[in-house]
Structures
1.
Amino acid sequence: MAARGPGRVSVLLPTYNERDNLPLVVWLLVRTFSDSGIDFEIIIIDDGSPDGTQEVAQQLEKIYGSDKILFLCPSGTAYIHGMKYATGDFIVIMDADLSHHVRLHVFYSATQKEGNFDIVSGTRYKGNGGVYGWDLKRKLISRGANFLTQVLLRPGASDLTGSFRLYRKEVLQKLMEKCVSKGYVFQMEMIVRARQLGFTVGEVPISFVDRVYGESKLGGNEIVSFLKGLLTLFATT
């Protein structure tokens, strides 16, 4: 029996201070899905942005209709909250800062359909994938984190800290029940738990472009949290 490609797709779009980026990324997503004929919805989940992101999200919901754009204020973890409202067979998680290319059908359609994968993950460290706009320090941090993860956890995937992924909805629900990490470690744990549970993971090379507007939240605290989370996963998996 031939593998079935994605049906309705729900995009979970967590935001924090993305007032300038949100209208453009939503417009690009709507155009991309409409051009490809894929049924979709975009769920914007804002974490109390003080810059007016919530007002922008509410306006977008009115413009495109609540059947296509849904704005939420989470009462807990953004992804868990968003999944409660997602109606798609597949769920895409991506950043709202334009660092991820929004042509999602290129990202997942062929790979998911051909391999019938449970997860399709974007990778910056395979094929023609790469990172643009980072300084040398941040590139070294990212490469070093990925190298340590590969050595300690042997996850069977080349990019553990990326957040541009597609999941079968039921697979994402099961993984969320198992994962206990937050922040940057969360993305890593999702792939590690997927391997433990026997889910299949496909990879697609992507070009990651540093945000144009706003500031990255990567700092010393995040690096320390990553290292702690990595050691915890190493000791418990």
2.
Amino acid sequence: LRFDEKVRVVVFKSEVKGVFCAGADLKERAQMDDAEVGHFVKRLRNLMDEIAALPVPTIAAIDGYALGGGLELALACDLRVAAFSAKMGLIETTRGLLPGAGGTQRLPRCVGIGLAKELIFTGRQIDGQQAFSMGLVNHTVPQNKEGDAAYQRALTLAKEILPQAPFAVKMGKLAINRGMEVDIASGMAIEGMCYAQNIPTRDRQEGMAAFREKRPPQFTGK
């Protein structure tokens, strides 16, 4: 996905009705020794980092349970859409654990430190509407008979992104992600570097031409 130039947006969905991702298999985990658990969680954390580092926008379609590592997967995505009935939570403390695949870092960056601490300390599960009210998800929708309402809404969101200039979108994601980790002056410098990379693109010229000619732009990602 990282190197496929045809990919514009990635949507993560589950093929299991009622479950986005239920997290680790604790029965499997119970068979591991301490070293194996540490190695397993490190690999999982690396996977989430790889997902977060994808250059194109990513959307998690949460149509059911997203618990523990499942919510960490959704947090590694840029955008999240959930059904009203979805259940989300970093429930690790209820099992004698703490989030180990990015949850302690990505949740506070998403909803703020106070709410993140409350959700992690209590291990509470919340539904789609509660998640929307605290800014954990971008959109929430009533579930449909097929059980894929969040996925359908995620596709609609993806289709809003698709017509836009691909390289500009990638640079926008990079500027936001890198800029959020530094002070605002450094962030401005990062934005300037990303903008400079976009200036010589054909898509920028196409955008200007389309505006002058009063027609929809035809972006190619070049």
3.
Amino acid sequence: MAGSPALLLLLALGLCEYGHGVMYKMTAKFRDSSITHPRLGQRLELECVSTKEDSGVFWVHLDKAGILHFIVFISSLRRTTFEGNQKTSTRFEATKDNRFYRLVVKSFSLRDEGHYFCLMNTNQMLYFSPAQPAFFPVVTTTAATTPPAPTTEHNITEKDPCLKTPDPETSKEKQLNIFCDIFIWVPLTGACLLLVVALAITIVLCKQTRRRRCRCKR
């Protein structure tokens, strides 16, 4: 259904009349008071309660984009006129019972989300009800994506890897590796030291020989 600028104008006029004082009170609400959020595909029933019985009521829908849509006009003689001057609708049903003007959304879907109002035009004055919001419940991303934490029972003891008893064969292998390292690296270190000492001695002897040769030539 396309939004109508005339409906927006009517709603604005209704706000002005509401501010100046309302002679007739109207209330739009879910027929089932236990409903807070509709479900997908649910048959959702709303009712408009008016203090005046001999006047027709309009049902309008303000969608999430802020566009007003005309749904139906229910006359005081229980006659219904839907969009396009149609007597019936594939999406909605409408009835009247004394002061109760009811609207039924046959199968609630995403495009039905928004705010619902009922309007009444009497004595060249427009009266409207407070908005009845109808939205699906909000699902938080963290609650939907975060897996539940694993639960551990008290009667089940988990093994701590830090408390494992050492394997005797593994400890023996470690000790052998340590001994092998000692036997290999200690002789190599000593040999390196001997080579350094021998090199130092050789350098000193070479310097002394050169000095003697120089003295002989003089």
